[in-house]
Amino acid sequence: MVPLHGWGRTSSTSAHLTEIESISGAVSALRSAEKGRGVVSRGLGRSYGDAAQNAGGTALDVTKLNRVLSIDAEGEPATVHVQAGVSLDFLMRTLLPLGLWVPVLPGTRQVTIGGAIAADVHGKNHHSQGSFGNHVLSLDLLMANGEVQTLTPDDDTAPLFWATIGGMGLTGVILGATVALQRTETAYFLVDTDRCSDIDDLMARMSEGDDAYTYSVAWFDAVSRGKNMGRAVLTRGNKARLQDLTHKLKRDPLKFVAPSFGTIPEIFPNKMVNRITAKAFSNAWYYKAPKHRVGELQNITSFFHPLDIVAEWNRVYGPNGFLQYQFVVPFSEHETFRRCVQLIVNSGHVSCLNVLKRFGPGNPAPLSFPMPGWTLTVDLPIEDGLDSLCNTLDELVVAAGGRVYLAKDSRLGAATFAKMYPRLEEFLAIRREVDPEGLFNSDLARRLNLH
Predict the structure, then answer these.
(1) Residue 148 sits in which domain range?
(2) Which residues of the chain have pLDDT under 70?
(3) Looking at residue 271, what is its pLDDT?
(4) I want to staple 423 with a disulfide (CB 3.0 to 4.6 A). Which of 10, 293, 298, 366 is the partner?
């Protein structure tokens, strides 16, 4: 038995961890797994909570299923067929020299294709291009009966396809997928930056201007109160064309710049992130940004994945770990959203890594998180009283017709979850049909009563 935890480093449980190196190995592991506690797939462990944990059961490590099987660079659209354990980092490094681009990137490249599908990850471009599942053309799923079925979004397998998108690994083991790609002339972006004075200024600018950009995201201050509440740095951009690059960058326009500053050591105590350190960080982050800058060239890491520069950055929160709370509420619930921000800022719980985005239309997946509206993410150190804050936020989110993101969640209750996801019974009906004995299971599934 191996102890496993999510990226938030909380609620560790032990499971039998089995490495999978082939489809036949996956079938064999499935058939030999202990039926009582079931099986869940596990990739690179970037779900923040307990989605890839299975106390007393089996966790299938799919990271050795890491081959890019084929690339069609000439098709419309261009496509790639990959095994589920391929990371977005490896895929990007493979595709960029061919002028091909992964259509949706979350806040880290250290996510497997299987994980990106199971969590239906989103990025800075959801308002313009949707979530990862929108770009999956087919997927190969190992079913509870030991058979591998290829699913697509628009034939008679569509209900199971969409239940698997965002289904957190509870319909089967994702073994591979074919994904539609985009073309790009460069590995750079033209980025506009604006400092926003408060939360209202930020939301107004995003509402009025986001449609002109493919990518949009804001860091906001969740520590300052009063007139500065929610002050923010808003960055928006589009892919740079070859003609936009400097003479020097044109020499290697598709270069993947991915610096690494090493690994955070396991030395930080609890409460390293506190009001003093968070205030200092927030001031530095806000004032280092220009008040207004247009057309800055940024590379992939700077624009998309600054946290990937340092490995194991989650250790900064100390042994108790942290909780990432992400929710979305409809655009019409502007005041509810503002109230949630105010509640967090005034709670006494501090967060440095705070993200605000706008979502576009959702997709047909019953458990997919995105919906048209405002989404906010905060990283909160585990401290006394945090669950009370989150429960109050849950109540506001439910009343507004919103929901929280399962890939980030580690503490939601089953009753509240059911209120947030009105298509839950549709998902459960499909799950029961394809897995009547509940072979696929996880700590998250038991906590949320997903049976």
Answers:
(1) 68-184
(2) none
(3) 87
(4) 366
